[in-house]
């Protein structure tokens, strides 16, 4: 940043520090393999800060919590950001030895942003949280991230002017705090070592009990509140949508070679050669899995829609299968050519779709089956007290014929309950009607 370095250094390190690789310090951005250690908490950081500055201004009591709160929000290694803050501000004393530094405590400028030396005070921020955010956003800029509407003018200018563009081109790995030190304080080899020294001295506090463990929960309170509001704001239909998406994700994982309901199905031209039309139960409670019968038993039956159902075969990944209602004998092949979708069975089902979802006293199940198309029909049928909703993938132009053929073969007395543009939409409706399990 071409700024004067050393304004707030508290420690006198040896005159010729041993150079260490920049990559030894952690990357600025957090990842699954680059996280803040569990022992680093606001309570311990505050105790560390007070050990370095016994006359700490009480208004800075929440600063460690702000670094954690905003650091987790922005995805920055906020522990090392905190260590850098200690270096830049003289542990919030804002003094350089016996004299006051260029940046004043009331500025809430914890990274010396804009304080380029020769009495330049740098930027001021309205409160502690804004100052912490300005620091973390500037770190993100160094990490190569674009910052939208940054708090600090310095960050905005460096970004708009492309000051770091050429520098970033030299990296084939994540930018570390060591890399930042060399650019942030050019002309000195001690800045990086000082940050590392501050981090090393904190380690003794990691071995001590957290004096204020409640600060962790306070730092994450806004995050929990935001998540709770987001959950509350979801439309009522989200439960069905989430169940549908979960079913799709599970199906893709379990069956990526053969569409046993939600994976890949042979093209329509290959449907006649398919050995089976698999059926998969998606929401059977685990307690009922034992003793249930897989759909069909015995020999294969022509389903009337170009596929076969091998009644002795369970589709891949389908651990618990229940017997489909009305499934007996061979299919009625008299369905003929494609018919308009306003069939008798659809008309009969219109009333049932308008009815509320099944009650606790009435069991329900959601199934999937496929002829390989991209559209979907929802088939409703019932046996005893169990209502079955089958999401049937059908081919465009053959929707009615394939749906009626499926009903004739596997869902006797069933009805078409709806037509949908995709399987996901049909599954969402099915799980709205049958959220059980």
Q: What is the helix content?
A: 25-40%
Instruction: Report, as a whole number of angstroms, the end-to-end distance.
Output: 58 Å
What gyration radius follows from the Cα positions, in whole Å? Answer: 32 Å
**Spatial strand order of the main sheet:** 3-6-8-7-9
The number of strands is 9
Helices, by number, come to 14
The helix-and-strand class reads: alpha+beta
Order of helices and strands: HHHEEHHHHHHHHEEEHEEEHEH
* Global outline: elongated
Percent of residues in β-strands: 5-15%
Largest sheet: 5 strands, mixed
Oligomer: single chain
- If you average the pLDDT, what whole number results? 74
Notes on the protein architecture:
The protein has 437 residues and is α+β, with helices and mostly antiparallel strands. 36% of the residues lie in helices and 10% in strands. The protein is built from 14 helices and 9 strands. It has helices spanning 42-52, 63-74, 78-89, 128-142, 153-161, 165-169, 177-184, 190-206, 214-219, 221-233, 238-254, 344-354, 399-410, 423-433; strands at residues 95-96, 99-100, 279-281, 301-302, 308-309, 363-370, 375-383, 386-394, 415-420. Strands 3-6-8-7-9 form a 5-stranded mixed sheet, sandwiched between helices. Strands 1-2 form a two-stranded antiparallel ribbon. A two-stranded antiparallel sheet has the order 4-5. It starts with 41 loop residues before the first helix and ends with a helix. 42% of the residues are buried.
């Amino acid at each position: 940043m071409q700024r004067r370095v050393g304004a707030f250094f508290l420690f006198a390190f040896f005159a010729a520090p041993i150079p260490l690789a920049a990559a030894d310090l952690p990357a600025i951005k957090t990842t699954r393999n680059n996280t803040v250690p569990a022992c680093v908490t606001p309570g311990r950081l505050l105790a560390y800060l007070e050990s370095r500055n016994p006359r700490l201004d009480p208004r800075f009591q929440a600063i460690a919590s702000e670094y954690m709160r905003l650091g987790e929000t922005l995805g920055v290694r906020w522990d090392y950001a905190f260590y850098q803050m200690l270096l830049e501000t003289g542990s919030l004393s804002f003094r350089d030895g016996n004299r006051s530094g260029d940046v004043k405590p009331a500025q809430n400028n914890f990274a010396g942003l804009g304080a380029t030396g020769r009495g330049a005070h740098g930027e001021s921020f309205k409160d502690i949280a804004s100052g912490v955010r300005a620091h973390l956003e500037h770190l993100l800029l160094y990490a190569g991230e674009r910052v939208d509407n940054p708090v600090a003018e310095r960050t905005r200018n460096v970004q708009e002017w492309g000051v770091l563009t050429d520098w970033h081109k030299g990296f084939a790995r994540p930018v570390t705090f060591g890399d930042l030190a060399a650019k942030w304080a050019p002309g000195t080899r001690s800045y990086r070592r000082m940050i590392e020294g501050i981090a090393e001295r904190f380690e003794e506090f990691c071995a001590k009990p957290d004096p204020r463990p409640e600060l962790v929960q306070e730092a994450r309170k806004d995050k929990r509140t935001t998540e709770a509001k987001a959950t509350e704001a979801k439309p009522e239909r989200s439960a069905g949508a989430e169940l549908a998406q979960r079913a799709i994700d599970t199906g893709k994982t379990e069956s990526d070679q053969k569409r046993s309901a939600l994976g890949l199905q042979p093209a329509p031209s290959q449907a006649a050669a398919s050995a089976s039309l698999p059926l998969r139960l998606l929401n059977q409670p685990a307690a009922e899995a034992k003793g249930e019968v897989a759909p069909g038993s015995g020999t294969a039956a022509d389903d009337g829609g170009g596929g076969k159902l091998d009644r002795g075969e369970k589709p891949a990944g389908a651990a618990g299968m229940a017997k489909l209602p009305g499934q007996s004998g061979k299919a009625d092949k008299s369905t003929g050519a494609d018919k308009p979708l306003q069939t008798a069975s659809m008309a009969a089902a219109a009333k049932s779709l308008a009815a509320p979802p099944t009650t606790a006293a009435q069991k329900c199940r959601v199934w999937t089956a496929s002829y390989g198309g991209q559209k979907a029909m929802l088939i409703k049928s019932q046996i005893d007290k169990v209502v079955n909703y089958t999401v049937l993938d059908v081919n465009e132009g053959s929707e009615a014929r394939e749906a009626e053929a499926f009903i004739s073969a596997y869902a006797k007395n069933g009805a078409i309950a709806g037509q949908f543009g995709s399987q996901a939409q049909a599954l969402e409706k099915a799980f709205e009607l049958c959220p059980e399990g």
